[in-house]
Amino acid sequence: MVKAERRRLFRAIRIALLLSALLPIAAGLIYAESTYRQRVGEATEQLGRAVALASEHSLRVFEGADSTLSEISQMPTEPPGEAERSIQRMAAILASRPHMRILGVTDAGGEIKVSAPWRSSMNVSWRDYFRVQRDRGSHGSLYVGTPIIGAKDTFFSVPISRAIRNADGAFAGIAFLALDRGYIGRFFESISGPSAETVGLLSSSGVLLTEHAGAALGADYPHQLAARIRSAQHETARQGHVEIEDADGRPNIVAFKAIGDYGLYAFASLRQNTIRAAWWLEVREVLMLLALPIAGLALAAFIAERQLRSLKKLVAALASNRARYRTIFNSSPDCNFLIGRGESGDVPIFLEVNQNSQAFFGLPSDQLAGRAVNEILEPAEASFIASSFQRCIEMRDTLQREHEVGAGPKPGHWEMRMAPLPGQAGIAIGSIRNIARQKYLTSSLRELTGRLLQRQDHERRQIARDLHDSAAQNLLAASLELKLAADALSRRNGPWHEHLSRIRDFIDRTQKEIRGVSYLLHPPMLDEAGLPNALHWFVDGFQRRTNIRLELRIGHALRDLRLPAEVEMALFRVAQEALANVHRHANASTVRLSLDMDEQGMLEFRVEDDGTAAAGVGGPDPIREGVGISGMRERLMAFEGTLTFRVSGQGATLSARVPLAQQAA
To answer: In this protein, which residues make up the domain named PAS (predicted)?
Structure first.
């Protein structure tokens, strides 16, 4: 009876504890929900203030640009004396407005008539800021185009244009200017912060003009945001806020405001994760206070016995793991270390360093523990380790960086890996390896490869010249001599006429073959007419020789642009090797070639075939890159270029990319 009553008593106590726990749990949930809504409201209000500042600043910028365009659209472009005064006036305007890079006026065909800085005859009719003004027919309307990169200074600019019309309303050209993209971006950076992680400027069509982003936005983010803003405008007029996901799929709160009547929007966004983190810091103590008594009453009796039993095992395992860790930590050939925040929080300190530290830092490990990095290392190396630590802690992920060491006990090239220590906030584990010899060998190999390729091109050019100047000329002389002999024997009958005719045919065919080999070894059209024309010539000849259907597309921006001679030669050799591989291995019926350059100055040459060479992918004999593809890749590496080769059941694709932002004329 006593045991039964005791069990009932314990059961009643447990039920009472459970019921008493429900009240603080409900109170905690209500408190957490109300606090979170308050945080969201405050964050939305702060975003509204940030976007108001961004909109006001941007409005002043575009009103100034509008006024400038109105002024220069009235400037005369002829005769030369008047045009020269217009250019001088434009230069004076640029001097007073450093955020404007270029001013100019074009005619109806897109030819620049006057500009500052002055540019020789140049046509901009293919740019959107010209085409829109020419085609839409609205009078006096400002248009903000897609940001472009300068061909000479490689700076991003935002093109702005206004149509110029005659007295009868006919389109007569545009007045345009290039606005420094960073001018607005620097102001956006000044107003961004914890309450507005990303501040930017967006056109109604979804073109991101400039931004200061605290998180990755993603390629589709501007278009999605523009669509959401257009949809939200029906309800919120010219300003408001929407929710949208960023590149990582995390929801953002975005406040927006229209900028005048220019079809532009300033926006400011904040990740809801950031709001949630701040909210959690505020409520977690209260929730923990509510949860601790409940958890303690419910779990204390249950886990106490288990904890006591497992404590001895845990201590033994911890000692064993620590011994293994110390062995691995000290026996590694690299310099391993633990690093954490110092007392000031700005400069990290070494918590522990293995026995290889002296080769890197000049001090034994027992003199490094507990000391700040700026007390031990040179300023450059200390800054490198401190910035790496800060970035690693912020990223909460493994970080790998390299650093050129010019001073210290052992100059060289550091390769450092650093990762946050699990379960230890503000502490990271890292390792440093000196890869100076590997870097030197790689650089030497690349330099040797480049010289070998240059020597190969030189030898091809010499062989082509020798074939053209000696063998081809000798065959021509022999053909002429045979013709003279045939003419001399024309009045005599005999079998020699047919023999002489066949000999001349053999000589003519040999001349054509020598001429073809000479042009393939070094096409003179490449030096004289540029890569696009040389590709057209090569494709036409290849198509006649192989009966493979070829399609060649040259980007509009490259039709009148000469590339550096080394780049043209490298890409032409890539085309030769790629088409040779298609002919030998692909069994293709159609090959598509394209050469184009994007707005960032990245040149891309692609070769795509519909052949069956990829049928063995995943089978017993997978396709491997041979000497030809390796040679093409080595050629491109001299210009910081890359080459990729992919195969599938539909064919193969070869892509060569070369950055030309600083090389394009």
So the answer is: 321-396
Task: Reduce the secondary structure of 107-174 to three states and give it as a string.
Answer: CCCCEEEEEECCCCCCECCCCHHHHHHHHHCCCCCEEECCCEECCCCCCEEEEEEEEEECCCCCEEEE
CA distance 115 to 88: 9
CB 197 within 8 A of CB 214: yes
489, 498 contact by CB (below 8 A) = no
Task: Provide CB contacts within 8 A for 547, sequence distance 6+.
Answer: none
Superfamily of domain 526-665: Histidine kinase-like ATPase, C-terminal domain (3.30.565.10)
Question: pTM of this prediction?
Answer: 0.42
Rounded Cα gap, residues 658 and 665, in angstroms: 15
The Cα–Cα gap between 515 and 176 comes to 51
Per residue in 86-100, pLDDT tens?
A: 888 888 888 888 888
CA quadruple 29, 32, 38, 43: dihedral sign: negative
Write the CA distances from 187 to 61, 126, 139, 264, integer angstroms: 11, 31, 31, 17
Q: Hey, what CATH class is 42-283 in?
A: alpha beta
Give the C-alpha separation, 583 to 538, whole Å: 14
SS3 call for 434: strand
| 143 close to 133: Cβ distance less than 8 angstroms | yes
CA 131 to chain CA centroid, Å, is 28
CB 434 within 8 A of CB 413: yes
Q: Phi and psi dihedrals of 347, rounded to 5? A: -105, 120
Answer whether residue 458 shows pLDDT above 70. Answer: no
C-alpha dihedral (530, 531, 532, 536), degrees to nearest 10: 110
Equal fold, 42-283 vs 334-434: yes
Q: Which two tokens stand for residue 360?
A: 């890197």
Start-to-end Cα distance in the chain: 101
CB atoms within 10 A of CB 36: 17
Burial class (CB in 10 A: 0-12, 13-18, 19+), 389: buried
Least Cα distance to 99 among 168, 19, 177 occurs for 177
Check whether the bond before 411 is cis (ω within 30° of 0). Answer: no
Encode pLDDT of 354-391 as tens digits: 766 666 776 776 666 777 777 777 777 777 777 887 78
Residue 657, token pair as written in the block: 């990319």
Tokens of 596: 């184009």
Classify domain 334-434 by CATH architecture.
2-Layer Sandwich (3.30)
Check whether 280 has a pLDDT greater than 70.
yes
CB atoms within 10 A of CB 208: 20
Phi, psi of 378 (to 5 degrees): -65, 155
Which residues, listed in sequence order, are joined to residue 647 by a DSSP beta bridge? 652
Q: In the chain, where are the structural domains located?
A: 42-283, 334-434, 436-522, 526-665
3-class secondary structure, 522: coil
* Euclidean distance between CA atoms 275 and 131, whole angstroms: 44
pLDDT tens track for 13-26: 657 666 666 676 77
Q: What is the Cα Rg of the chain in Å?
A: 36
